[in-house]
Amino acid sequence: MFFFLIENNSHGDASLAYFDKSFKLLGVVKRVGDHFNISDKDLNMYFKIKTGKLIDLKKVEKTMKGLVFLKTAYVYISRKK
């Protein structure tokens, strides 16, 4: 049995899942106008932050605000390993 997590990043859920080693990012849903596309391409481009910025997951947990990344998706699809 698989456990899937469909999350956005407004409250940091996607940030926390991505950096949690027990989850694997499988794909993203991108919104294009009124349509949604699921993609598993270039997943390594998501969750990249500007050079010099620190990733503080404790702050994400405390403030419930997701980190700001260079490339974002409407929602993220992860699977529990």
How would you describe this structure to a colleague?
- The protein is 17% helix and 31% strand.
- With 81 residues, the chain is of the alpha+beta class.
- The protein has one domain.
- The longest helix has 7 residues, at 13-19.
- The radius of gyration is 13 Å and the shape is globular.
- It starts with a strand and ends with a strand.
Beta-strand segment tally: 4
Q: What's the SSE pattern?
A: EHEEHE
The separation of the N and C termini measures 11 Å
Task: Give helix % range.
Answer: 10-25%
Work out the strand percent.
25-35%
How would you summarize the topology of this molecule?
Blueprint: E1 4-7, H1 13-19, E2 23-32, E3 35-39, H2 57-63, E4 75-80
Antiparallel strand pairs: 1-4, 2-3, 2-4
Give a quick summary of the entry:
The chain is of the alpha+beta class.
Provide keyphrases for this structure:
alpha+beta, 4 strands, 4-stranded antiparallel beta sheet, 81 residues, 2 helices
